[in-house]
Amino acid sequence: MEQGLSAVVACGGKSTRMGVDKAFLRLNGETFLSRIVSELKILTSQVFITVGSKRPEGYVWEAGGPVRIVGYTLELGSPLSGLVAAVDYIETPYFALVGCDMPLIKAELIGYLYSACLGHSAAVPMWDASGVLEPLCAVYHTPSVRLGLWRVLDEGKFRLIDLIATLPDAAYVPTSRLTTVDPDLNSLKNVNTPQEYAFLLNTEYSQR
């Protein structure tokens, strides 16, 4: 396990496009949440699940072991809400932030990002072709995030991308480098709509 790393799973969204809570969608007999937490627990015993105003019981059950459930203290309409609520509980210098719609996440990819984050304020995957970032599959430096959060909130900015823009010396990790630990980049595949869920269930990914 990585002693300097915690993990936060963002489950507080309304899942408006999916129509049901994505954390409880099933793949090969497991919920998305249980799959994600199982991978993260390879790296750390300190796992937080942010749930907004939802009832915590189902999340604890699906996590399959000790986790800390965190409700929102501010509703900002983005995953930043969960980060604001969780960051003061994190005791490690670094933490991974993962969305509950990434059921194919692999511990090896998070471990790679953790190594890339050492000495930086963040390690965020960046798609080579487009330059698009994946802030919900990334590793962050806890003290830097605490400082950056209050800055963006004071400026009335509520997106994770806004937070990352304030962080000094963030490392943007090209997806081509991540293929060394996740050749098909399945860890970065998120499932937001019924169509994407159906595709997941009917492709080779569901057998992995």
Key terms:
about 210 residues, alpha/beta, two-stranded antiparallel ribbon, 8 helices, globular
In short:
The chain has helices at 32-40, 57-63, 80-86, 107-117, 142-154, 160-166, 175-178, 194-201; strands at residues 5-10, 26-27, 30-31, 47-52, 68-71, 94-99, 122-126, 137-141, 171-174. It is an alpha/beta fold and 208 residues long.
Question: What does this protein look like?
Answer:
With 208 residues, this protein is α/β, with parallel strands linked by helices. It is built from 8 helices and 9 strands. The strands form 2 sheets. It has a 7-stranded mixed beta sheet, with helices on both faces. A two-stranded antiparallel ribbon has the order 2-3. The protein is globular and about 40 Å long. The two termini are 23 Å apart. The mean pLDDT is 90.
**How many helices does DSSP assign?**
8
Strand content: 15-25%
H and E string: EEEHEHEHEHEEHHEHH
- Would you count the extended β strands for me? 9
Instruction: Report the radius of gyration as a whole number of Å.
Output: 16 Å
Strand order of the largest sheet: 5-4-1-6-8-7-9
Shape by Cα distribution: globular
